[in-house]
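Re: duplicated header lines in exported structure tokens

Our pipeline writes sequence and tokens for each protein into one text file. With two proteins the header for the second block appears twice in some exports. Here is an export where it did not happen, for reference. First protein block:
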Amino acid sequence: LCAENGVDGRVIGDPATSMPMGPQTPDTLSNLLAEIVRTDGGLLFDMRGSVGLIYRTRTSLYNQDPALEVDWEQLSPPSLPVLDDKNTRNDVTVRRRNGSSARAVRETGPLNVQDPAADPQGVGRYDTQVDVNPASDALLPDLAGWYLALGTVDEQRFPAVTVDLDRSPELAAAAAAVDVGDLIVVNDLPADVSPDPVRLIVLGSEETIGSHRRTITFNCAPASVYDVAVYDESRYASKRTYRHSSSGPITTTQTGITFRSDVPWVTDPDQFPFDIMVSGERMTVTAIGTAVQESDGEFRQLWTVIRSVNGVVKSHPVGVTVQLAEPPRYAL
């Protein structure tokens, strides 16, 4: 398209792994490019230092190594998280040009469509429609599911992160090299902001250079949706969350905890360690004992853990839910 219209264009990522497009219809260049972006889910942006366009494929955003890591003290305002519903979409319909449509709805779990009065994890219905042009109708359910995942990321949003290069001049080269679609990580945040590092995908940036001042502000989105599963490498949770057994609450220092789940968890020593989250406290699991099936069909296992890995020290009541700290997503 760019070549046909005399525009310098470049692709980051392997085009062969991008979403196959349907028939190209007569339209403006901008509309056709926007259709590609909606269908593949990548990012389109201007070249640096010359007139032209760059398209970064969705798959090139997956499972990246950080292009920049900074500590919280190396940032300047505005860098605070925002709790809002700007990007929430829990009822998604994707529609193919001259074809059919598919719908994906988050009925349960975080940011679901239920009334908050009926379900504490519900936020009400946020619906949207996305016009796409994949090669076949068979691809529509996957596209709907992907857009639903993008719209139900259950974490704080950091719309802008400003790196103070006067305070940390050693970051100047790495920060200036960060481009759209790159991953940046913010470490050592205050406990009241986040006990864990914040991982962000860069959507744009603005550099400010004064007589005695230099900052770069990155516009960002959560990166977790792009942390996708890798076959034979990623760990998956049970289809249900786990709960603490009825033996009693969890103390702040307890390292042997009994959990119940609908399927037995792995006991192979080669599969450890891995991290779990329990009401904001991150724990590292170093071993899981033999599963014992209860009368209700669920399995009870003793988990050996290292407590307060992220600095959160707390006790937990009976019935607390347990999840993988970094659950993988299915890629589109």
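Second protein block, exported in the same file:
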Amino acid sequence: MRLTRYAASVVSLGAVLAACRPVPGPAPLPTPLPSPTPELVRVEPPPVTDDLARESLLEAIDRNLKAAGRIGAPGCPGSVLAQALAALRDAVVRPETDLAQYVLDRFEFRRSTGREGGALFTGYYEPVLAARRKSEGGFVYPLYRRPDDLIEIQLGDFDAEWSGVTIWGRVAGGKLAPYYTRREIDREGALAGRGLEIAWLDDPIARYFLQVQGSGVLRWGDGSLAHVGFAGSNGKPYTSIGRLLAEEGALGAQRATAPGIQAYLRAHPERRDEVIFQNERYVFFGEVVDGPVGRLGVKLTEGRSIAIDTSLYPLGWLAYVDTRAPVVDSSGATTGYRPLRRFVLTQDTGAAITGPGRVDVFFGTGERSGLEAGSMSERGELYLLTPVECRG
């Protein structure tokens, strides 16, 4: 999902190539990272503990092993990593195992940024939204599947220099053009009448945040449920509307949390579209059998799955995080903090998760998870754990 800005006018592929060199995305709230470096730096392990039940770690490892053919990194083949994870799984199921000591003996710790306090942790979740299969009553806001004219281009297929860079567009007048913006889709109806609607929602703000999360659960009128997941985007870069609101002083002294942003938009309906349209990125969905599914292609595990920048860090890796999480009340207000120190797996990525030391923790499904995830913005440490067999 690593996306770059390119020319807004209709351009040829050659022009797109010239305009698409990757640039870093906006620094996450509340403050930019302190001059981080992308290298993974080998360090002495920190004090290790794990604040979640072992069953959730076992679940996450089992799901990771289903994608064994898609894990690994330079210097550590996927087969070696899979063997190390399988051995860790065997240790997890034995209650007598000192899990912390087991990991310390068999993995090297590599800090994500090479400096204290270098990582910034945010959270994401899977919302549950009321939906209808056709437009009726107040359900007038469409959720679109991936359009047939949306073209995904891996630039590395044309030039190795662009390896890992993906652009999205459409053909117009025999040339590649940028795909429609959020305003063109939602205000001007660029996709209307094409039969692309998966569902109709009754809340445009909830629809927007569903796109930010990338997956969700739809509750139909009869009470049945359907999972939807990311199926593509229009290729525009992600713009944080929270950052924009904070910079203009609209949120006052509040932090730019998801609950705070939503509250502002609901209190100022006359500004809703103006604010939302500033994020031109638009996400398309497809129904999935079970979700949410991360970039690794496996179902995410609450509290154990994290999203990272895959241009810097590998997917399917065992990691250790050391930070804290907010304790929130029913309104989303932070009432305190609790430690968040545990083993996790790098199973996802996201348009807003760019740069070294950026981590998005999956908090789970539903409203409560959303309040916790939306309030999460904390400093801490991310360590990627390398099997000793890959010591280099």
